């Protein structure tokens, strides 16, 4: 059979899940064409990846898909989307709030959201279909990728056996934890195996909804049980009133036929209720992080770059952040204004951030719960247990604020000396190099976020001459730069800087009160776009 070979687009994306389509859409908003290769005709109906953070919803706003996503929500808008942790059983009466992401809402430009990943994928597919810069090849499977000095090739085949070879400048593997692109690019992984077989149950029950009316406004439930040594029994709503998913550790020899899953659910809940199973599946509890996210013209993102147990809703959100981080760097390279180190900064920023996410939040939560369960037992010392449980309440709030992925150690931002890229941080309104920019109102109306350009943006608060110097330097370097001139008042003084250079992904590249030298704008911009010969960070002069 003949193989058709053609140059399809600058970027070929293997895998049309949420990360693949998110990357394609973000590239399209930057004027870059792409081809998405996806083997499944429709999104797979497994309710995973449900919790979308405020940061992720900023992306959907930029992509023109926020309204459609919120309309696709399977739980009514007036019903809460928070979580709760219970001790012993779901209905024990010992509980505290968990993952209260609404606590950090003031630092972002959008509300968080909750809906099944297949519903999110459907919205992204529809948005991609509306954008002429995206070609979608549904029903095609990638069989090989390779690269040479001038480009890359992706071999694909459909169910009828027809073959095509796509020629592109770059290939991005968004093809899941068993990524073919990662394997053929020769990108190794560091694995951490917890030696736990987990079950995923999707079931229907109206009686469970009635039992959980004691927890109004809650959509997901984490049950701590002493026998599980820190691992969770986890219930989550798919809709309001009937459909649920559940995952928990089970014996290593468990199959669909040798285990009483209904009894298992009843024991976890602490009561009997009606159950009709839609899906019974299994997965291994392990962590895997690619050691590098790039091999020449081949990149990986999302689960292809990092996989982990679905604890805390970090996975799909991390994948979207991969997509946005990589997108602007690919666009800058294809449009000719990137420095030679810009593409490598993708892995330099995103890889350590996810390694920290896995180590310091997901895995650490297992260890913290294990320690708690071993130390505190209400049957042994009720007063001690109640005091420790109360301390957990405040710890749960602190965790939400502490999860603040940042790029302080990136080679292309001007972070503090000796700093590192990490998921551990702290939300603040101050404009800090390497951190996401918090929204503030503008004196002319609206918010800063609405004025940020798809290239770089300089926020100049009473620093007009410096803004002119940045505009001249950007023109000389060919860097797209939007300038926002305003005053340091009405909330903008919280930025604690009069000059803030914001990257195309809404992270701060550099911030200062004034220029310390006339040549500084060119030096700042050069480093921010990947010219790593620009030297150490310019010293931020103070007023």
Automatic annotation (TrEMBL):
Pfam families: FAD_binding_3 (PF01494), Rng_hyd_C (PF21274). The keyword Membrane does not apply. Keywords: FAD, Flavoprotein, Monooxygenase, Oxidoreductase. One of its GO terms (molecular function) is monooxygenase activity. SUPFAM superfamilies: FAD/NAD(P)-binding domain (SSF51905). The keyword Ligase does not apply. Signal peptide: none annotated. Its cofactor is FAD. Residues 9-356 form the FAD-binding domain. This is FAD-dependent monooxygenase. It comes from Bradyrhizobium denitrificans.
């Amino acid at each position: 059979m003949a193989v058709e070979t053609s140059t399809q687009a600058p970027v070929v994306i293997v895998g049309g899940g949420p990360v693949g389509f998110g990357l394609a859409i973000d590239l399209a908003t930057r004027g870059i064409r792409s081809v998405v290769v996806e083997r499944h005709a429709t999104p797979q109906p497994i309710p995973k990846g449900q919790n979308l953070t405020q940061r992720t919803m900023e992306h959907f706003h930029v992509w023109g898909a926020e309204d459609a996503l919120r309309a696709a929500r399977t739980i009514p808008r007036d019903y809460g989307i928070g979580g709760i942790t219970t001790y012993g059983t779901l209905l024990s009466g010992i509980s505290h709030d968990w993952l209260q992401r609404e606590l950090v809402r003031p630092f972002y430009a959008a509300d968080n959201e909750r809906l099944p990943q297949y519903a999110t994928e459907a919205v992204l597919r529809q948005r991609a279909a509306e954008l002429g810069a995206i070609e979608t090849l549904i029903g095609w499977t990638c069989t090989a990728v390779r690269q040479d000095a001038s480009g890359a090739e992706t071999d694909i085949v459909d169910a009828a056996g027809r073959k095509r070879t796509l020629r592109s400048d770059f290939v991005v593997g968004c093809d899941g934890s068993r990524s073919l692109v990662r394997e053929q690019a020769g990108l190794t992984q560091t694995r951490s195996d917890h030696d736990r077989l987990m079950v995923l149950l999707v079931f229907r029950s109206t009686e469970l909804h009635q039992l959980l009316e004691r927890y109004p406004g809650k959509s997901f439930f984490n049950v701590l049980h002493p026998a599980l040594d820190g691992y969770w029994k986890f219930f989550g709503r798919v809709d309001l009133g009937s459909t649920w998913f559940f995952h928990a550790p089970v014996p290593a020899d468990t199959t669909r036929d040798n285990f009483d899953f209904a009894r298992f659910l009843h024991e976890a809940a602490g009561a009997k209720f009606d159950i009709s199973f839609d899906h019974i599946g299994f997965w291994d509890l392990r962590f895997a992080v690619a050691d590098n996210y790039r091999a020449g013209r081949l990149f990986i993102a999302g689960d292809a770059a990092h996989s982990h147990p679905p604890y805390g809703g970090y996975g799909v959100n991390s994948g979207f952040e991969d997509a946005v981080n990589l997108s602007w760097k690919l666009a800058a390279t294809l449009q000719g204004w990137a420095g030679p180190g810009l593409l490598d900064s993708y892995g330099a920023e995103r890889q350590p951030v996810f390694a920290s996410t896995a180590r310091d939040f997901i895995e650490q939560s297992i260890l913290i719960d294990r320690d708690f369960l071993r130390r505190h037992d209400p049957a042994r010392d009720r007063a001690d247990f109640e005091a420790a449980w109360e301390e957990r309440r405040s710890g749960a709030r602190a965790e939400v604020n502490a999860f603040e992925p940042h790029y302080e150690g990136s080679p292309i931002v001007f972070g503090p000396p000796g700093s590192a890229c990490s998921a551990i941080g702290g939300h603040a309104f101050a404009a800090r190099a390497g951190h996401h920019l918090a929204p503030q109102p503008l004196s002319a109306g609206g918010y800063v976020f609405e004025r940020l350009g798809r290239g770089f943006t300089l926020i100049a608060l009473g620093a007009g001459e410096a803004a002119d110097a940045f505009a001249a330097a950007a023109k000389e370097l060919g860097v797209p730069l939007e300038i926002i001139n305003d005053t340091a008042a009405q909330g903008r003084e919280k930025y604690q800087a009069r000059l803030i250079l914001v990257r195309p992904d809404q992270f701060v590249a550099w911030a200062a009160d004034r220029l310390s030298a006339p040549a500084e704008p060119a030096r700042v911009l050069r480093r921010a776009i990947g010219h790593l010969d620009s030297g150490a960070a310019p010293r931020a002069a103070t007023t």
